[in-house]
Amino acid sequence: MAAIQKMSAAKLASLKHGPTINILFRENDTTDLAMLREGFPKQVATTFSALCRQTFPALAGTSMADISKSPANSVTIIGGRVDAHKAVLSWMLACCEGRGMRPFPYIHRRRFWHYAHALESAEILQIDILCEELWGRMKDIAKLQVHTEDIHAVYSTTEKGYPIRGMIAESIGRALLERRLAARPAYNMLRQDPQLKDFDEDVNQAIARLKKEYAESEQGRAARAEHQAARKAAKEAAQQRFQRRRNNPQKMTTAEVAQHLDVPTESVKSEDDGTFKVTVSTEIIRKGRNGRGQYVALPLRQAGVTAEAYRPAVSEAAPPIAKRATAEKPTERRMHGHKAVPNTTNSQT
Hints:
By secondary structure, the protein is mainly α. The chain contains 15 helices and nine strands. It has helices at 2-6, 9-14, 42-48, 50-55, 64-69, 82-94, 111-125, 128-144, 148-157, 163-177, 184-192, 197-216, 218-247, 254-261, 307-310, and strands spanning 20-26, 34-41, 74-78, 268-270, 276-278, 283-286, 295-297, 334-335, 338-339.
């Protein structure tokens, strides 16, 4: 791997000259051979691929029947996907076009899925430099979160225990634990899909494993103790601060009053005299009918106003209010429609 990276662009370009080989493909040991690439530069294949270096000068890992079927200048790839193998071979040739080592082509849709197949091809061909590059790209994707299209493609076409499934489950599980999972409803639909039930199980197992690993780690124990101490100190400080400000209402803020009374902040208004005006919503308990007014319930208890606090005790009750004396009106007599003279004056005969 290091030798390839140190090769100059001219040295890599010279690898395309010389004899060529045929690259064959078979899906498994029981399927027939198929031509994958004809006339591939031999020096390019043996320089990049350890499988090709092991194959030449003699074919290794093939049966006598395969040797009799194919010419001696061929190498057989077993397993993987045809399109992924073709992409890897094209990348090998692109590195030998006189521009030096080239990055593997970037993919914009279903990146994780396509990179996984390219990685599988690189592992079969034993190209360490490409395996490292593709593995790094997949890790970068998994650090954020794997797209739902990639997850559906992987879990619908692979069997349980496929290595890439573990990376996907850990990616989504970590995003859930860190509360940064984007498009969560879409992932919930995948977890509820009966055809992808393994995905939900893998994510649950990944979450449990990550929680256990973090809890048992020294960093997790220290962070947990620090978090608990910080919460306790913050709670005590908040209680002391609120108690001090409660004794001096002028220093309280509308947000603190709203939090204490459990009402929206916009319903509390500070007055000029240092008091606060709280607007609360009421509930109609009896509707008005036939000219009668309606009754509403005012949640005074929510604001700490109780009858016990404002009802005077019996011993401190005010004395009963005496009845107000009324002035006696002068008596009057009416005789034959004429107003009589009050008794307090002497009438003149």
